[in-house]
Amino acid sequence: MIFRFLSKLLRKHSKEEKRLAIAIKQIIGHKPFNLALYQLALSHTSASKSLQDGFKESNERLEYLGDAILGAIVADYLFKKYPFKEEGFLTEIRARIVNRESLNQLSRKMGIQDLIRYEGNPKSNFTYKSMGGDALEALVGAVYLDKGFHYCRKFVVRKIVLGHLDLDDIIENNQNYKSIIIEWAQKNNRDLKFEIVREEGSKHQRQFIAQVIIDDEPVAKGSGFSKKKAEQAAAEKTCRTLKLSSRP
Amino acid sequence: MIFRFLSKLLRKHSKEEKRLAIAIKQIIGHKPFNLALYQLALSHTSASKSLQDGFKESNERLEYLGDAILGAIVADYLFKKYPFKEEGFLTEIRARIVNRESLNQLSRKMGIQDLIRYEGNPKSNFTYKSMGGDALEALVGAVYLDKGFHYCRKFVVRKIVLGHLDLDDIIENNQNYKSIIIEWAQKNNRDLKFEIVREEGSKHQRQFIAQVIIDDEPVAKGSGFSKKKAEQAAAEKTCRTLKLSSRP
């Protein structure tokens, strides 16, 4: 144990490792202790080495861990910041913060996106669309393992939530158009369906066309690179058509 | 601050409060500091007092927090216990531990169920079917706020995971029959549908009948007190009919 600790301290880092350590310090605020954790967090599965037994060395395990830790820290933060808000509000705002799209954006803003090791065409918008958000989650997992819960909480609150998110704006702008329509349909006793009416493109660049149908009447169509996004796009148009407000 | 601390120390507890403090100590291992947190965790919304602005004093906010904290701690525990398992395995086992049914069972085993304050008929099986699991989550939230993350992690690992769960058994018994069939259908290129074909009973005791349809042929039906349970029951029968193994 002590030997491993000393050898880690004394081992010479390569230039690339030193560069990564500096980049991590800029992102999380302090020098990493166990750099290997951060290297792993930034390894997309496409660039991962296969070890024995088919076990791959990619950031997927760290992403699983970081997802849970990030969710807990954001839950705690909102719980304390809004002592008089009910759990429905807290759940909704947390979902707006930790959803894939938001995490992808954060990953770009925080400069994590550029550090990811992956195989593929960097100019293509279609490859690995959630790679950035996944790496951000994996980084949270790495910080948790490297520095502990309290440090990780500070990192998430200061560098992610306070550093890059505008909570008032997130609360004001309810971009979940689908849930607005579902709520409206329930209130007004209307029959509502979301249907995927078409899929286009190749396996790796598939685009979906969704349609909103109210009382068997098609109302609006929308497209997107996932079923969910296509439905959201169709829902957004429906909101405009029906003049439904997006304010909660 | 100091005054509040002292008045809390010196305030006489009622007999009921003392009894609760002893029960909590038996469950979590140490005396609670802020008993009010635990009282809140054990207050079902049916027994909650409405405060001004329609804000209710029930365990729902604590449940939201505890759900996230419990998820993170279990994620961390499995991550470290199974260093060579992939994230799909970890996610699945975590879901089996923290699903509503499992949490309800744990709540009964740990004696939390009997401490919950609620309005309703205690003999009815139908009222508030997830009340126990919700209270367990809220209790985790209370421990986290009262004693901090590290204590809460010890509580979850020692008293919940090691104290009441048999991980080998959980791993061996894949009770998610629905996912087994979905996997099988994808592998074998079969068209699979789950349909709710009937609803029975009154609003508070509704029973659902689900049907599994493969290549437009009905295969099996199942019933349950929620759509999910009905689908699981139908899926279980389908697994037996198709002789699909439930071992992962």
From TrEMBL, chains A, B:
Its EC number is 3.1.26.3. It comes from the Bacteria. The active site is at residues 67, 137. It is found in: Cytoplasm. SUPFAM superfamilies: dsRNA-binding domain-like, RNase III domain-like. CDD domains: DSRM_RNAse_III_family, RIBOc. Mg(2+) binds at residues 63, 134, 137. Keywords: Cytoplasm, Endonuclease, Hydrolase, Magnesium, Metal-binding, mRNA processing, Nuclease, RNA-binding, rRNA processing, rRNA-binding, tRNA processing. One of its GO terms (cellular component) is cytoplasm. Pfam families: dsrm (PF00035), Ribonucleas_3_3 (PF14622). Residues 176-244 form the DRBM domain. It catalyses: Endonucleolytic cleavage to 5'-phosphomonoester. Its main location: cytoplasm. One of its GO terms (molecular function) is metal ion binding. The keyword Transmembrane does not apply. Its cofactor is Mg(2+). GO terms for biological process: mRNA processing; regulation of gene expression; rRNA processing; tRNA processing. The keyword Glycoprotein does not apply. Residues 13-148 form the RNase III domain. Belongs to the ribonuclease III family. Digests double-stranded RNA. Involved in the processing of primary rRNA transcript to yield the immediate precursors to the large and small rRNAs (23S and 16S). Processes some mRNAs, and tRNAs when they are encoded in the rRNA operon. Processes pre-crRNA and tracrRNA of type II CRISPR loci if present in the organism. PANTHER family: RIBONUCLEASE 3, RIBONUCLEASE III. Homodimer. This is Ribonuclease 3. It comes from Microscilla marina ATCC 23134. The gene is rnc.
